[in-house]
Amino acid sequence: MMTKISLLKCKDYDNANITVKEAVNLLGGISSFVKPGEKILVKPNLLSPKTPDKAVTTHPEIVRAVIQLVKKAGAVPVVGDSPGGAAHTNIKELWDVTGMTQVCKEEGVEIVSFEAAGAKEIDINDVNVEKVLFSNIVLDCDGIINLPKLKTHSLMTFSSGIKNLYGCIPGLRKVEYHKLASKNEDFGHLLANIYLFLKNKIRFTLVDGILGMEGNGPSSGDIRKIEMIAASSDTMMLDAFLFDSLGGNIMKNHIFKKLNIFPDNLNRLSIIGKLPGDFDLSNFRFPHTIKLDLFPRSFIRILGKFLWVKTRVNLSKCGGCMFCVKSCPVHAIEIKEDIKRPFVIDKKCISCFCCHELCQFRAIDFKKSLLAKLFM
Asked: 146-157 burial, b if ≥16 CB within 10 A, otherwise e?
């Protein structure tokens, strides 16, 4: 059976409403996914309080279009996400800055706090995390419409539909799981297991790739104008298709390996609308850390202690907010009292890159071992 993916070009967010609705219509229309009376969670990526033009969070016009579709189907939409780590405790500020407060007010829908709604721990058969905490908002809704941003990710290489579901875990527990699943492979398996647990709730995933991010994402990379809207009822295959289209290697990605996705699976896709060749995807830059995935596991076992990438604080950029200190899962970042600025303790750092992901000042750089410098 062929998996449908709608792929459309959209030059700017002024045209996003029309394009989003066309993308959903190409998949069969909103009534194929949502029934009257259902409570549907519209879940954007709200990583941190960044304005929409920074390409860190899902644009509010994408959210608006989906809200209108859900209401047209006779269902009740609610909007929500949990931001990264401990960095952003003022949820109202997050909603205001990302444009969610305004769009939800204008559309007359509720925006919800995953943290305030309570949560429940569930065994999702992950090897490293015994039970995963999910917000009650996620567990109690009838369905989820997943609205990720198309970005790179310094730990997982790529961030789209599956990675966006990590925001279903409220508050600091997200940081704690980075400690329990500290290796790239382990964290990839955790993300895959979260997806498998939520899979039947996801009505469709629609990716905001009008403005994407390349380089060292998901918050400190470079904005890339991709002009793309992509949607599918199959989140896993949509992610694999996009990753491959950007030049990624599916065989080297731990999420896809866990989900048994191989290049041959892409032959069973039906692309409706545009084709990857209709977009300028040439020389798309993945994070520097992607090259670590190219080494054979036997090589890593032998030379692993000499081949590493850790983080360091760029004091010339640091704003002294200490979010990195609060968000480090292994307390590897401490405060230098003489200058009141944070610094990273190398021997404690597990290279999860949470500090890099959450720093609002882009003050976290990468520090490489001598061997890593030779290859990266």
From this structure: bbbbbbbbbbbb
pLDDT tens, position by position, 315-348: 999 999 998 998 899 999 999 888 889 999 999 9
pTM of the full structure: 0.94
Omega before residue 218 within 30° of 0, cis? yes
Instruction: Please give the backbone phi and psi of residue 5, each rounded to the nearest 5 degrees, phi first.
Output: -130, 125
Whose CA is closest to 36, among 71, 78, 65, 66?
71
d(CA 168, CA 185): 20
d(CA 196, CA 275): 28
pLDDT tier at 297 (50, 70, 90 boundaries)?
low
- CA distance to 40, 156, 341, per residue, from 145 (Å): 7, 22, 40
Name residue, tokens 């080494």.
295
Residue matched to tokens 């959903």: 24
Give one DSSP letter per residue of 52-111, joined into a string: GGGSSS--HHHHHHHHHHHHHTT-EEEEEE--STTS---HHHHHHHHTHHHHHHHHT-EE
Per-residue model confidence as pLDDT tens digits over 219-255? 999 999 999 999 999 999 999 999 999 999 999 999 9
Q: What is the pLDDT of residues 95-137, one digit of tens each?
A: 999 999 999 999 999 999 999 999 999 999 999 999 999 999 9
326 in Cβ contact with 334 (< 8 Å): no
- Tell me the three state secondary structure of residue 374: helix
Cβ neighbours of residue 364 under 8 Å, at least 6 residues apart?
220, 311, 312, 313, 314, 324, 353, 355, 356
Rg value, the chain, Cα? 20
Distance of CA 85 to the CA centre of its chain: 13
Which residues touch 264 (CB under 8 Å, ≥6 apart)? Answer: none
Q: What percent of the chain has pLDDT over 90?
A: 83
Instruction: Provide the 3-class DSSP secondary structure of residue 247.
Output: coil
- Residue 344 β-bridge partners: 333
- pLDDT value of residue 87: 45
155: which residues sit within 8 A by CB, 6+ positions away?
184, 187, 289, 351, 352, 353, 357
